Amino acid sequence: MHQFCGNCGSPLGTDERCRKCGWTPPVQAKSAPVVKHRFCGNCGKPLGPDARCAVCGWTAPAAAVPGVPKAASPVLAAVQQKNVSAPKNAAKKQSSKAVGISKKKKNILPVIIPIAVVLTGLIVVFALNFFGVIHLFGKNTAETLKRPSAEEYLSEIGDVSDKEPADEDDLFTEAEACREFSERGFKDVEIVAYYNTDGEHIGTLTISPDSREKHPYYEALYKTPSNVVWTVVLMGDSFYAEPLSFKAGDVWDTPHMVSEMENYRVYDGEANAFFTVEPDDDALELKLVDRIDAVTLNGLDAKGVDEL
Length: 308
Description:
The protein is an alpha+beta fold. The chain has 6 helices and 12 strands. The chain folds into 2 domains: 1-72, no CATH class; 153-306, no CATH class.
């Protein structure tokens, strides 16, 4: 292929025609006379007396056959023939590849469609089972996964002796709770609440000493001067303290709780009620003190709690 005019050396257009002098590369029959080139058809530099380019080595063709210019050497002829046939071969390969991909897609579709139909059917069936429309396993999944009630759960800990609705009139406001914690020596602690008065879980809310909002119970972390960490809980109007620094399994076989009463109060948001539990010794061991305050907890370590 010629890139520059053989007559004046100007670049050829896309139609291989010189815009300056109108010259086009010759397409000659074997018997046609040789057309003399004065400039390199590859780089446009002037040719030498031997019709050869001193810059890139290109040689002007002696004659041409239709479609492929005749080269001055067998090697150049092979290169020229390759350049002509390469686009055709590439197009043929691309076409074959496209046909192959199309065949693969057609072969995969009969497999994918049935799998998708089966999966969709399974999802529908399990959804119907979950919501109780059908029963695959005797009881529907929703019933199987249903959360046990507070009474059912607490009965595994001990005897549930009382259930008292969380009456808003009997609950502490945030300001009152802050004052209760402070009066017991739990100062500079972050007090949080988890439920509102309707029993709805509100996440972890840090309460304010100026707020009149009410909550069923409040909780704070207290660290003693000896670096013992306690969870202090105001449950309704009752205080409890649980040692976090020495938990069951590390020091004791069962959890220990410090209490001012011989029973334990628990709040359940679903029922929005307080439950009074007399725990079994193998489920929760209550240790009695006269008053839960900073002074009391500061004097307790694992051995001290065990001896209460």
